[in-house]
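User: Sequence in, structure out. Go.
Assistant: Echoing your sequence, followed by the structure tokens.
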Amino acid sequence: MDWKKEYHKWVNFSDLKEEHQNQLKVLSKNKNNHELEDCFYTHLEFGTGGMRGKIGTGPNRMNIYTIRRAAEGLAQYIVSNGDSAKEKGVVIAYDSRHKSYEFAIETAKTLGNHNIQAYVFEDIRSTPELSFAVRYLNTFSGVVITASHNPSIYNGFKVYGSDGAQYANEEADQIVQYVNRIEDELHISVKEETTLKQTGMLKIIGQDVDNAYQAQLQSIILDPDMLQQTAEKLRIVYTPLHGTGNTPVRRALALAGFTNVESVEEQALPNGDFPTVEFPNPEEASAFSLAIEYGKNNNADILMATDPDADRVGIAIRKDDTFQLLTGNQIGAILLDYMMKTKYKNHTLPKNGVILKTIVTSELGKQIAKEYGVETIDVLTGFKYISANIKAFEQNKSHSFLFGYEESHGYLISDFVRDKDAVQTCLLLSEAAAYYQSINKSILDILEEIYEQYGYYQEDLVSLTLEGKQGTEQINQILTGFREKPPQAIATKEVLIIEDYLVGESVHHQTNQTEKIYLPKSNVLKFKLQGGAWICLRPSGTEPKIKIYFGVKEDTFAESRDTLESLKDAIMEKVNNFI
């Protein structure tokens, strides 16, 4: 795109909203044109999961015009599926971010112009409840307006299929094609909100869906008799980090008997500025600062935080006079270990049970599942791949889904939701903590027992932010460099296998023997090393980042820590050389 031509198109558009006119005036006065160019040099990418970007003016920002473009592409896809798809319609949720409600209504207005039924929640709702609502209302599609755990200047548009999961590759590609054909986002027709409400094409929903979702949440409890005796004794501090989680999480915990729950007051109400945290991300230790203060004052046993759309969760466990934050992989191991033990004890572990995890998630979960005769299947990064497998299991009745997770703090316990669900996770984590407390143990004690039994697994992630056109080129340089000059060894670990998910091949380094990878093509490289260590390079699908994942296993914590640091140092030196 010629960014100056696009800029003038927007400047000369007679019906441009006043806020965008004002933004363009400010941008045009800036002598440094880099920001102005970044707003107009391309269309904000609509990928297989939707789009995410900074709020602002221009085709490369989140605004009502780019929202209309995304919604118009979705509308055309729905129309191509016939009148039944239009009648089933689309359910739309939105979180606490700036412009989220406005973007939700603009989506409904764009769909309404094609006579597509729209259901919009009366107030903010979580992403997992949106996923649930698609199946509960039997809609053709779903949309949630959210940028998950990104900073406050971001928002996004995520699209879901009729199974409540983000669209799989084939359907997603079709929607992407429809969106990419739309060159002019400024002249997309929409229906008026009042007209749509009067004709019933826009319906407001809320409490009925909430009640049905909460009823399903209680079904994941594994040992209700135990909870009757223990739940009220567990002291919990919870924070929604200014997002959507406060109402559903606290309600689910209360219904399960957890009455000793303290909410972080400063973070309880929705606020798109996220004023008390640098990032509203429960993966970050800084997000727990206030929760730790509350925990110390209330002598809490466990702290829990959910991100703005309540699909990810982080926890911290009391350790003497402070609290220890767990990694996403550690939380997954605790959940999986508790589920396996309890289901085995209760004789509810199915013979064809299966665990689903991503290729960048710890191998520890696979070992725990193996102990109970349960198969683990690896999928590409992105929860839609976990959901696609759940759908396939339903169709061919080959497996019983038990648990799905990814290292980035996303977990699914029961498949009435088809995306990661922090509300489910908070409930099951609380059950596990209550049980262990009843036998005079903490989750940290159990984590140490897991390491002693299966080995000291440790993982880490280095995330490089490389923004703009130059950043995209640098990310490509890194991946091209590792493909053209793959390392023979990394630190002291010999490379045994190179998995290239872009070409769909796994190469054994010593024999040069190749095997096919039966997963969708993706621009990802994974190096498997001696001793069970591994490294994976993957560009983010939603942010201007390249993520580099590390995993090790040693006999002691100290050994695994040292191995991890040496691998990180070696690989980052190579990354810096490539850029």
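User: And one key feature?
Assistant: Residues 557-578 form the longest helix (22 residues).
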